[in-house]
Amino acid sequence: MDLRARPYRSVLYIPGSRDRALEKARDLAVDAIIFDLEDAVTAEEKPNARALLAQVLAQGGYGARAQIVRINGMDTPWGADDLTAMAAIGPEAILLPKVGSAADVAAVAAKLDAIPAAAHTRIWAMMETPQGILNAAEIARAPRMAGFVMGTNDLAKDLGARTRGAMVMALQHCLLAARAAGIICVDGVYNAFKDEEGLAAECAEGRDFGFDGKTLIHPAQVAIANAAFAPSEAEIALARRQIAAYEEARANGQGVAVVDGKIVENLHVETARATLAKAEAIAKGDAA
Prior knowledge:
By secondary structure, the chain is an alpha/beta fold. It is built from twelve helices and ten strands. 47% of the residues lie in helices and 16% in strands.
């Protein structure tokens, strides 16, 4: 299964303790939702948030949006209960915070294996610690793994980094590991949710790095992320012309074509076909 065939342009965090936010999320134009039981929920609220989220997810109504539940770490007082409650619903994915090794993922995968309702539940990993970054390649190939989420706030804290530029190596390292394993990798959050220009610039950078999309902290950020990580009309038109030119060249016994003064080989055609497939998937999702 090609996990990247599905759009993950916008991945919005929703606190599991806020019933109004959970209700409104059913109508948001997001590709994926992270239902958060960890950082967005205070210690006092965690048991109630778990119960509320279990009820809400059982009701459904989120359509084609990818549904990912971030539980508390298994080394906390809440992690085991979070996993048991959420696995009983069989969500699309469980997001594990502060993953440091493949063993962290394997331990949770083994627990999911024992729960019939979670037979198809995948695991995503928050990549937000120095140890996790260094072990990214093994984590990406752990059991049930389907995606990385860059936790840039926690990573910056642990590194003592003051700029995004200081984390570029870590971002690219995780992206390399994800691509080698064929899983999703989404960029970290942009904290200044009212700064549309800054968000657009960081989305463009993340897109150019190769990320599948961006995690978001506010619904106001969704449209900007969706636009940044979707193929533009110009990119779609170029992809079609590249495919047509290459097919014509092959029909004439040639191995390469030329479009806009640039060589087009099979690898460019593969990229062009992926661009069109992504555009089609986005169009279907928007129409649903």
